Fold each of these.
Amino acid sequence: MTAPTAPDSAVSTHLVVTGARGQVGRELLRLAPAARGYGRAELDITDPSAVRAVLAPGDVVLNCAAYTAVDRAETEIEAAYVGNETGPAVLAAACADLGARLIHLSTDYVFPGTHDRPYDTTDPTGPATVYGKSKLAGEQALLARCPDAHVVRTAWVYAGRGGDFVATMLRLERERDTVDVVDDQLGSPTYAADLAAALLELAGRPDAPRVLHATNAGQASWFELARAVFAGVGADQGRVRPCDSSAHPRPARRPAYSVLSPRSWNEAGLTPLRDWRTALEDALVRVSD
């Protein structure tokens, strides 16, 4: 995939983006400005009446809304399931009744994170965290209720702004002499703009498989990603030092390995996403403008 481009305007007018104020939602609206976008303040996706009021037959709903506080989910269990299971279930039921399609963004956390090869869509799930369990429950509820629904799992999404990992590394590069970053967790860094473009392509492919994986190509540890960020802004990579996960204990255990296989996406004839390093270069140029 080259740099993301906007879809046909006729397609955009039938797009509905939920979770429109998040990383991917903002990129979807940038690439498809004619789409109807709703943030949490504008639409409660757990309210069936509110959802049905904004949808119409023929719409394609891109659901980016989610409860994403991975650590807080360990204690805010009900809130996690409301956001990640109830909301998608309500959207799915509404789409099924109205004759709309639904594309739902999910996560690598539905897997146990113990593989030594990229996870395929056919691999057994087995989430180890409340967040992952709630996201898997959302997938299952959605697929059961809406025959025209797709689940797209992704991982390590960043835009380079706000509080995401890349933005944090850019801030720490300015503030600290050295930064310690874990090197025993592997994943697929994914640029939000590339993911948004991929979802928009999928919006025009109702024949695609129901469950897909979409990440930028390749894999990296958080340490390697941090070094690439430093290098991308002309800073000394040696200022990023490796450590293991025990140096940064978290309430929710992070997957040691969460690389997702692109096989399902590529075999469907969808455009392969570009290498994560190339995408990161573009992201760093954009945030510096």
Amino acid sequence: MIIVDNALKERERSNNPVRVGIIGAGYMGRGTVLTIERSVPGMKVAALYNRTLSKAKRAFSQAGVDNYREVSATHELDQVIAEGGYAVTDNPNALCRAENLDVIIEATGQIEFGAQVTVEAINHQKHVVLMNAELDATVGPILKKYADDNGVIITNADGDQPGVLMNLMRFVKTIGYDPVLAGNIKGLEDPYRTPETQKEFARKHKQKPRMVTSFADGTKLSMEMAVVANATGFKAGKRGMYGPECEHATDAIDLFPMDQMMNGGLVDYILGAEPGPGVFVLAYNDNPIQQDYMSYFKMGDGPLYVFYVPYHLPHLEVPITAARAVLFNDATIAPKGEAVCDVITLAKKDLKAGDMLDGIGGFTTYGTLENSDIVNTEAFLPMGLSEGCVLKNDVPKDHALTYQDVTIPKGRLVDQIRREQMQYFDFTKISNSTVGLNQHLNIK
């Protein structure tokens, strides 16, 4: 979005910056504060929430902001923003309800807490940028409906793979090519990695072992590609996708079933390829004149072509998403309707009745992509709802868990809005024989 820079410069000239509130001062939240405050004219991080205030203060100090105030209530926050100041708080609702903020960036990666603050922000007419593919993959379609009803934007972010993919797809469509596969470039996938196996890598890169584990075991990849599927309508060619190994993104042109790509499109990935960690799109154009041009441009003989971006830069690009939402009412990537793909829960090892599932990036389970019609027909347990569930029976390694296998924790908002999502999009009509799912939906 090249026009964003000039629009932000105009906001800078008029002394009317886009006022951002960030939920979460972890690794990505801190980086986003740094980027906005040091590099983005016409935008400011007016408010920053973190459960531990010292981490929020650290994020501001790292960005060269020392004149922040500590607040607890919404009216205090609004006063600070109106005066042109900065605020830190351990009250997330203060950001969600503040009249003087333009957009909220949700940067926690947490599902239940992320659902709570996102719904609260939308209900108070705030645009929301999700640096949280896990939440988006689990309940993104119903959050999009809430946002539409409130006249605001909800979007995943530029700079993370789903946003980079959607930007690339929009570009490819604009120049006259028909995307038929949206792909991720993945360096490693081992579904049995755990926080123990990943702790040294996490320590080296100053990240949390569970987050790094979710990257290595394929759960994060699956969440990201569910976000892309739900925004494009593309499906998984099979459970878990194909994920062929190759040396370079350009090799992908011959690695996926043409009949599936041409019949509605695929989401998938390649493993171990350069340039990583980027994304790629396979796109189709059979015009013979254009094929001559593309051959001259060294893009191949067609009619299938590979377009790729060799990197993704999450905290550097997310300010662009916030600006697009506020200044142009434009989502980087958001669900287009009902869910097309979901991430289901599989056992990392043999599990016993009474075991509690420890969720994304843990020791007990991993997530993999499946088409939503199968997920709902079979009543598979979404990975995003798995944390805290208790097994009713023994399950073997690699078993795909269903609602009937578990007891779900009571009182979670994310379960409530997942039920609303399924009922709104009428998935219950294909699931009336599935006892576990019906119980979860409270169908009588």
Amino acid sequence: MNPLLQRLHPYPFERLASLLADAAPPADRPHIGLSIGEPRHAPPAFVGAALCAHLERLGTYPTAAGLPSLRAACARWLERRFDLGVHAVDPETMVLPVNGTREGLFSFVQAALDAAAGGLVMMPNPFYQIYEGAALLAGAEPYYLDTTAATGFLPDLDAVPAEDWARCRVLFICSPGNPTGAVMDEGYLARVLALAEQYDFLVASDECYADIYLDEDRPPPGLLGAALRAGDTGFRRCVVFHSLSKRSSVPGLRSGFVAGDPEVMAAFRLYRTYHGCAVPEMVQLASIPAWDDDAHAAANRRLYQEKFDAVVPILSEVMSVERPEAAFYLWLAVPGDDVSFTRGLYGAENVTVLPGRYLSRDHVGGNPGAGRIRVSLVAEPAECIEAARRIARFVAAKR
């Protein structure tokens, strides 16, 4: 077997299951799960209808390139959402469908890296663990960029030595961030692009939370917009990842896309031809109306805004709470150890959250996730409010 498999870390939710395996939560309180970022809002009815309307495509092998109509819908959405202008994104050369961003992020790194050459794959810390696993299985070394309150929960780009930038092959960025909800402004993104130009690495921008933000007047910017406004109409070295899972509350559809530098997309398309992970055509056809419609995404976003409005005041009575700019997570500093807190909360209140250290790696100065928990506000509003009350009661009891 591939010896690199031995370098993989257990997945956060495997660790959580082990942590809680022998715990006994109170039977009189229904379980509320806020550990996984799995949207549980009702999906748009028109997506399901489109999926059912095209079930005859079960008899068709999909192509790696995907349907031209889907690529066009994705390109139009990018142009609308990030104010790129008409025809800024060529759907023929700049867009590829993927089976959700998780699959796309992982396979992209395998296609992008020369395993014999080694090098670094840089990523925020804490992070989505696919970044790390993709780097390890591609024969590269993960390089962790701590994101803490002191840095505004963004990587400190200036703290990276020049010799490390010179070894970088791919830089992962995530904006809005998981688990912090921090947003990179266009000035920050421009700095990322300047470094990529100077040191010749690819920028892989995970933007799957781009349509979930708390201020309607401040939608988070994206990497392609920053590149375009810097004069780069070809999006050189830029690759962005988007998904319907969060935007449209359809995580089971496994539908997303990758877009960016045409030269990179051509190589990635070749890889995917052999990888055999083409998106089924009925999924593609159900995805087109989802990317074409912005009203359902706005309604979905309002639900998250309402939940933050209700939950933050409850928790603020007993602990410090920083309302994020975007995404649907609270990244809470908790009293004591985050792992013990998570187990204790489950045992006392039957609420499941995720210890921050499960999303981070020990690094210079410690583990940036230690002492924090990630709370995913994915449940219905009433459940999120009830969970906030239980968390607040648990924290108050620990004083």
